[in-house]
Predict the 3D structure of the following.
Amino acid sequence: EAGVAQSPRYKIIEKRQSVAFWCNPISGHATLYWYQQILGQGPKLLIQFQNNGVVDDSQLPKDRFSAERLKGVDSTLKIQPAKLEDSAVYLCASSDAPSSYEQYFGPGTRLTVT
Amino acid sequence: AQTVTQSQPEMSVQEAETVTLSCTYDTSENNYYLFWYKQPPSRQMILVIRQEAYKQQNATENRFSVNFQKAAKSFSLKISDSQLGDTAMYFCAFQFMEYGNKLVFGAGTILRVKS
């Protein structure tokens, strides 16, 4: 079974530029999560989708971050414009919720904003 | 709000020895899950072990076991017979007992296994 795929693996941009990350969850998983992991901290949920609907986006900085999950499969996370403090690893995870508790993580995208 | 605290930023252990990583959490809920995740340098987050709060018996997965103290809100991970491949960042995480809920992570503990 293929795991959660993410691209790109690394991205370096200048502040005020835009960037987009892509995630392809495990086939059949209805729930998709985006977590932000700042260096030295644990991951923090940015947004959670159930199919193509948003379940929780309370921690998403909506003035600059946006996310979508068209057709309830792939998802993109966008930052526009980026700030220095957005430098982090962005992890995508999926789960077969509500049938299962377990979340499966992708390899993450490391973003550096200069 | 739920919080998870890992008080040990870094730990080291000799190969084949035993090490215990600490975790405490704060919640007013009675039903929840607790997890330990491993994140090697490749960044792939891997589930190590989970514990349901309603279960008194401590979870065990091969060389990994937990000491779950619900009243004390403590959830430590014991790794026996440590191997070089156990070198990684370890995260303790909390989840409400409702499938699909988000994970709340601690800050992590870097574990280095020395030969």
About this structure: Chain A is about 0% helix and 50% strand. The two ends of chain A are 37 Å apart (CA to CA). Chain A touches chain B through 29 residues (CB under 8 Å). Chain A has a mean pLDDT of 94.
